[in-house]
Amino acid sequence: MDIVILFERIFLLSLMGTIPALGILLLKGILKDRLSARLQYYIWLLLIIRLVLPFTFESPVSLFPYQPEKDMAVTGQTLTNTETVSPVYSTSTENGVISPVSPVSSGDNNQHTNIIGHISFSMESFAYLWLAGVLVIWGYIILVNTIFLLKLKKYKSCTQTEIIHTLAYCKTKLHIRNKVSIVYSKHIQSPMVWGIFHPRILLPERLLQTLTQEELSFILLHEIAHIKRNDLSLNLIGMIIQGIYWFNPVIWYSMYKMKQDCEISCDASVLRVLSEEDYKKYGLTILNIMKRINELHLVPGTAGFASKQNKRRIIMITQYKKTSAKWAVITLLCLTLLTGCASLTGSANSPDKELNTGTKNSASSDTTTPEAPTETQNNDTDPEDESITVINTVSFQKYFDLLGSTKETLIETLKEEPSKIDEGGLEFKENGIRIWFNSEYTAVSQIFTDRADIDFNGAKIGDKIDSFKVAFGEPVSDNNGDMHFKYDNGFISVNYDTKTEATFAVYLLSEDF
Asked: Which helix (H) or strand (E) element contains residue 236?
């Protein structure tokens, strides 16, 4: 799959995932103790499902615009999506002809020029920047775990009968039959569990020598609960998601909060098999372990007994109780609905998904407005096929032939009522063009467009300027980002960014200036 298309899909999924992520954080903040620790952890699965599954649902109502077309340059044409473009020709005339100037926005001219100079990254550049970030994050995780695995092979396996019996007792208490081994080393800082397929509980050697039988059983119960609940697998998925969506701070923070909730939920799983008299002892064990550890640096992909949010864990332990199922049902329904709404995208036939970077269709809310007809369409073509074949097949010749036309002919040909703009020009929003007349206002002399789907003999707006050279030959002039080509009985003026050479607008001229 093309890297640009992949990035566009990831970016859209990122936007869709942001809404349920914020919804989860908001509901957790509002409901707080009304939700069980287990539910506060597992509701994050809704976010993971939304981010992992690349499915969307077409709907007339969409929370998100259609993805931008690949290879579309984020240059001056991007600015025209959100700002009204002022007339591109000055009022000063020479020999009865309006002189061209650079396109500017309705705001400050200097500000527009500065923006054009700085916004020069193409979508492909963003895509490769994203890929580099993913590879760096994943590479770091793989490197750290590889080094840790090599160290793990040197650690000692626990063979003490008393500890093995305690392990067996804890496995029975949590109803788990998986094979679990215990290793220890002086290099291990805190009790933790590592390994998805062959889990191992890691214990600090100096801590193992000072633990009481009861404290050891609490630690083992916690780590075995992680194994039973497959927390390491979810932790791995969370790290993969953080790598893919590293550019989205909301998702990054959500995965961090999910890991915190994992520890608290695991505590709740342990408390369910303990008596109420042991709740306080279990909390004290957490505090005692933290007192014996100077610094806590957990390896990515592990789940530990001690963590940095112990205050919240102790509060949960001391106030542990079963919560009402009513709030669980309400929360799940709200978040499921929110996640579903965030998965809606506009219909594929909606004109809002056309990729013209000019003003066409941007102010219209009518989802049935058809695209401008192409010059090559046959009269007996099925109208239902127009919305399918029109994309990327609009020939510039259709508009070039309008040079010299009168206003009446223009309206009749384009089948659209225009709106007036400065300098006596007209804007045809549905066709994505703006036109100006000669000094007598009798014939079209200039046509402006920044639509990305118009075919200029194989070149398109957003391509490099060299593609227009291939299409029309050597230019007759090239002046600071404004290259003119002779074509038929007129001229074609192509504006491009002098730094990136990406084109962002085209003028069709009856006379060269």
From this structure: helix 231-244
User: Residue 182: what are its φ and ψ, rounded to 5°?
Assistant: -120, 130
Which tokens hold the place of 205? 């050697």
The pair of three-digit structure tokens given for residue 319, joined into one six-digit string: 């106030």
Counting Cβ atoms within 10 Å, is residue 50 exposed (0-12), middle (13-18) or buried (19+)?
A: buried
C-alpha to C-alpha distance for 84 and 80, rounded to whole angstroms: 6
**Following DSSP, what letter does each residue of 367-426 receive, concatenated?**
TTPPPPPPTT--TTS-GGGHHHH-TT-EETHHHHTTTT--HHHHHHHHTS--EE-GGG-E
Q: What are phi and psi of 500, to 5 degrees?
A: -95, -15
Say what the pLDDT of residue 298 is.
61
Per the DSSP assignment, residues forming a β-bridge with 58 are 345
Are 456 and 395 in contact, with CB atoms under 8 Å apart? no
- At 174, phi and psi to the nearest 5? -100, 5
395 DSSP β-pair partners: 455
Identity of residue 426:
L
The predicted pLDDT at position 115 comes to: 41
pLDDT for 332: 59
The full set of domain ranges for the chain reads: 3-66+125-342, 356-509
* Cβ 439 vs Cβ 98: under 8 Å: yes
User: How many other β-carbons are positioned within 10 Å of the β-carbon of residue 461?
Assistant: 28
What CA–CA distance (Å, rounded) separates 398 from 3?
A: 33
List the chain residues with pLDDT less than 70.
1, 33, 55-121, 292-393
